[in-house]
Amino acid sequence: MDSEQRKHALALIQQALPELDWTLHAPKVKRLSRDFHWFSPVLKRLLEDKQADAVVRPRSEEELRLLVKTCVQHQLPLILRGGATGNYGQLVPLEGGILVDMTGFNQICELVSGVVRAQAGIRLAEIEMLTRPSGWELRCMPSTYRLASLGGLYGGGFGGIGSINYGPLGAPGNVLSVKVMTMEAEPRILHIPAPQALLLHHAYGSNGIVLEVELALAPVHQWIERLDVFDDFTDALDYADAFARSPGLVKRQLALFAAPIPSYFSHLNGNYQASQHAVISVIAQESEGFCSHLLEKYRGHSAVRQSAEEACEANASLMEYCWNHTTLHALKIDSTLTYLQTAFNYTNYRQQIIDMADLFGDEVISHIEFLRDNDGNITTSGLQLVRYSTEERLNEIMDTFRNNDVKINNPHVYQIEDGKQGEIKPEVVSVKKCLDPKGLLNPGKLRGWDVRDTLVLDNDPLLLTDRYQ
Amino acid sequence: MDSEQRKHALALIQQALPELDWTLHAPKVKRLSRDFHWFSPVLKRLLEDKQADAVVRPRSEEELRLLVKTCVQHQLPLILRGGATGNYGQLVPLEGGILVDMTGFNQICELVSGVVRAQAGIRLAEIEMLTRPSGWELRCMPSTYRLASLGGLYGGGFGGIGSINYGPLGAPGNVLSVKVMTMEAEPRILHIPAPQALLLHHAYGSNGIVLEVELALAPVHQWIERLDVFDDFTDALDYADAFARSPGLVKRQLALFAAPIPSYFSHLNGNYQASQHAVISVIAQESEGFCSHLLEKYRGHSAVRQSAEEACEANASLMEYCWNHTTLHALKIDSTLTYLQTAFNYTNYRQQIIDMADLFGDEVISHIEFLRDNDGNITTSGLQLVRYSTEERLNEIMDTFRNNDVKINNPHVYQIEDGKQGEIKPEVVSVKKCLDPKGLLNPGKLRGWDVRDTLVLDNDPLLLTDRYQ
């Protein structure tokens, strides 16, 4: 569908649904069509001219249903938008269409002991504010939790803070079910339990419209946030590793930043020297007594220490220096930087981290996050900062990591498969076939859709027949 | 000191302290000098004639201080007794003396968010009863938690229920500090923080008199207890392993029992066939939804299911079929059985378990407990049942395990070092030198004490100088 045809379809849809909350002013539509993909100079170029034709913010499921129905009728693409904190252009419309601002769906639907069910547009920080009084918090969340939406985490996120305990969001047990609207002429509402629900996870909203997500929660602790500094990189690594690996030391977050990354933290860097390496940890109050012992052992020094409550009140959590917030802080100081996403091997990550740091010197700067993998092993991911020169050199760097048995989850591509080492489960495409048979949800995003005839597809991967409708 | 000399010393001590709560009736003293070491036919024989000369149950720290002072004065050994649920004769006096029943010290001293400090003689179940209302429970405890004391767990225990999350009790962060009375002519009270406090852990009360233990706690979940059965042993193993390894499935306990062990559970075995293998799991309510999916995958069936609350009210928790309670249930049915304590390798425990089960057939029956090790790795321990023939054959079996790279923590020995592959930190002996310079706490128990001149001892392993007194 070319631009003229889309304009025509859009006009008809507007005419049919004038009562919706439309945004049509082109600069505003363009602004709303962006996320944080500009962290990547490659994506910045590739997605520069991509945007929606209009934005709608539905105020009810009925409004959304009417919009979906009418879009299907006129074959206009539809793209979902949460908090717009993604890093790979998850929400950027590749072939125009209507961007659906989901932030109107911001209610908690149910909160029982250890479980919350909420609407997709609710902000993650809002969920925590509502669950904390009963002793529960999110199991994992991105560093962007203040802005990020539940649907965005589900559709475009991986894990993050808390993954040191619960693994990635997609590990069995973290997500319990989703409620979905199909992209059909007569939209249906489906309740899909896990594990089938996970076929819609991390598909960037391209294979179904997620309305609600049911999550298992984590018990609240009295968290202490710390930033400790070290003159020696290996000492910092070993300190973080010792903390990560001790099953009796309760933590929520552990990250390691090689110099000069800590110097990019402009609100904190008065507390240490630019040459120092840092570990940010969020640890349970009852485990903090061991920090002084471990710091002594690894020649580290306390630089920042605050309770999570103090941090929250001051809007100054150290969690907002971790995961991809690190990249954001660095880019504010040096806009020539970009980043990698790497997954070290759980059996020898310590040596891999040291080797890769030695190999690239100042060109690739270590930012290492500790987490559990899907099999419960403690391991590490890198969100290394890269001094960007050319796309060719960036690809060369990534190849060197691959050749050293470090996986790359490429953040410089915008199609789903390319971020996952080129592969995706065929069932993810099958789900799109079930829930979006015309392929109208952000066409171009799921490459497997375009070659779906070559995949062996399951006609009913969600086990939908009569079960969950 | 021979029996006559001891009798004389005892008479003098009694004369000096007539107001203490003495037990002198020989059969009762003998009964109180026993624990569950009779699980081992070897220990049963070795410890048959060992017993205290008298028992005292102090009603206050002052009474205990007077007793210690007077025992030191007359050089009479002193041995500590908690709930008497140990399995290696931890409390059995090797050279007579006064057995100190610590159960009078049964108060909670302090309870704050995530931390409890309590007296050594309190029962573990009592601690949980008091911490649960504020949302906390024990991080790890033996299956004997209803009778076992805190001091007993600290002095003679390893971990158990909950170690799948927090590792052994000795992993950094689980124990925060201890309060100790020295065995000296003028007994001192010392407060010793971790990690130094751990030098008194698992030393069977032979290197100090622990009065209080401060523990970090775990947040309470709504636990569900399940016993699921499988026709195939490998299916049962893989089910338990999948549950253990999934970081998003929250659990407190996971154990695998090869047939015919489940048939020994006489209050449960109406729910399944004698040929079936079983997995007992204690899992968070919010994770239970995945059981049906995993059971289907591994061809298992639910046999028993109850909430922890129901179980507690009925005094019928499935936790009391795990760890060394398994051995107890089995011995009630077949008194010719005994058991092993094995530690599989975290990198290949699955294959080791299968190989050892194949190797020994019905002679050694798999009872496997899942846990985290000190480095946070998920691994397994075995408390295999053995059809006992001779001591020689038992040693042969243990050697075969060792030769297959499975560690043996030998439960058929009564000296501390022998249960730990023959080794112990020299600091443990140094602590005895500091806190029990005359070697009066259950002499004979810590073999290293007798060869202490050949060890390089640290004069102040507790960093006591001025710091904690």
Automatic annotation (TrEMBL), chains A, B:
Protein name: FAD/FMN-containing dehydrogenase
Enzyme Commission number, as recorded: 1.-.-.-, 1.1.-.-, 1.3.1.98
MF GO annotations: D-lactate dehydrogenase (cytochrome) activity; D-lactate dehydrogenase (NAD+) activity; FAD binding; UDP-N-acetylmuramate dehydrogenase activity
Keyword Glycosyltransferase (UniProt): no
UniProt entry keywords in alphabetical sequence: FAD, Flavoprotein, Oxidoreductase
Enzyme class: oxidoreductase
GO BP, sorted A to Z: lactate catabolic process
Pfam families found in the cross-reference section: FAD_binding_4
Coiled-coil spans in chain: none
Segments forming domain FAD-binding PCMH-type: 48-220
Protein source organism: Buttiauxella brennerae ATCC 51605
